Amino acid sequence: MEDGKKILFWNALPGEIVTEYNITKQKSHYCEAIATSVINQSDKRITPKDDCFLSTSPWQIIDWDYENDLKTDLIVEIFREHGIIIDKPNNFSDNQEYFYRNKMEYALYWDQQTSKIQLAFRHRGSHKKLPIFKSSIERPEIFAAAQNIIDELNQKHEEARRYQTLLLRSNQKGEVSGGLYENHQPHPKFKNLSDEILGYHYSYSPNGFFQINLPVYELALKEIKKIIKTDEVLDLYAGVGTIGLSIARDRKLTLVEVDKFAFEELNKNVINIIHAENIERVSSWHEQKAPPVKTGGRLGSRSELINTVLSRSEEALDYIKQNQTVILDPPRSGCDDKLIEKLNTIKPTTIIYLSCNPSTQARDVKKLLDNYKIKDIKTFNFFPRTPHIENLVILNKSC
Asked: For residue 313, what pLDDT is reported?
């Protein structure tokens, strides 16, 4: 731009020349824009499957092999920007380019001409609604269920303005749960779903946190499981427990989660383990430093504990120990400085850091490199046809 700002383009590929564009977001040092006219088109450009691709999956315009290559290049670049030089990581995918999302949220659009409701997404960079007639990123069962709900609303002559959004989720069996959020009404409770991850059973709420792409998530868990050598594992930001309980239930395991609804599901999943595997002892700390509440059972052939802790991970620092593997799977904002400082002080044996935001991940890793060395980095394409990346960093104590 004339003022020297960098423009980040949607609907444009490296090497293409953008001749016309619409700015969608202004920041102090850059802006975002949608390219509306492009010349010298890249040979990596393909025709998108959906008219709504810019709203849901803007990388539908990219050749599949090129997408996977770009994502590993982005990891190298992001870490370089934080002063960390790495080799290009391996990229893992199950090659399911479309129909992989197990959760989708739709807007409701009111068609003035037909006086009917239509499914919609938001235009990128705008609150304006884009009516849709097909979508290829979510599982087909979800779109079919969404359309059935819209048909029922139209049969009742409902109006779109009554509703905030439509949220639906599907498990791997194709069972769908979720529903409509009404304006100015409490959020509804939906029927729980269940899935198997690495052969283990988990239940979860459709409107709670659960992984979007389970087959690729399982690939990541298999890689993580290979790394764990310590007898004790601390799983921070544990959610409903799918990482720790899938790969470390045969070890002394502590899981920390702050969201009370996710924590409730976490404890249900632990109880399922008790019934399924006859675990000897399980503890639950509902507040940090509170006395444990024990139930019966047996953890394999060992008498160690599974502990669940309702706490912010940044406030559960006393659970960090030296001879331990610490699993980090934080929100996009990354880890709090207090947690990083504690890790640098205690120096647990191994840190496993899984992140959906490689930029904050690289920032945090940089702060650990005085005491740790990077053993491995692996990239997982959890979100095909989007620029989002899930990145795994393995850190071993250097001294």
From this structure: 96
Question: How buried is 135 (Cβ within 10 angstroms: 0-12 exposed, 13-18 middle, 19+ buried)?
Answer: buried
> Please, which residues have CB within 8 angstroms of residue 136's CB and are 6 or more apart in sequence?
49, 50, 57, 60, 98, 99
Burial of 355 (0-12, 13-18, 19+ CB in 10 A): buried
Q: What type of residue is 92?
A: F
> pLDDT tens digits, residue range 236-279?
999 999 999 999 988 999 999 999 999 999 999 998 876 666 54
Q: How many helices (H) and strands (E) does the chain have?
A: 8, 20
For tokens 């509306």, the residue is 36
Query: H-helix or E-strand containing 305?
Result: strand 305-310
Mind listing the domains of the chain with CATH numbers?
1-45 (no CATH), 103-193 (no CATH), 211-397 (3.40.50.150)
pLDDT at residue 74, rounded to an integer: 97
233 pLDDT above the threshold of 80: yes
Q: Using alpha carbons, select from 58, 62, 26, 67 the residue that is nearest to residue 46.
A: 62
**In whole numbers, what is the pLDDT of the chain averaged over residues?**
92
d(C-alpha 46, C-alpha 63), whole Å: 6
Best CA proximity match to 304, nearest among 399, 232, 372 = 232
pTM, entire model:
0.91
Give start and end residues of each alpha helix (H) in the chain: 53-56, 64-81, 140-155, 214-227, 242-247, 260-277, 337-346, 358-368
254 close to 236: Cβ distance less than 8 angstroms: no
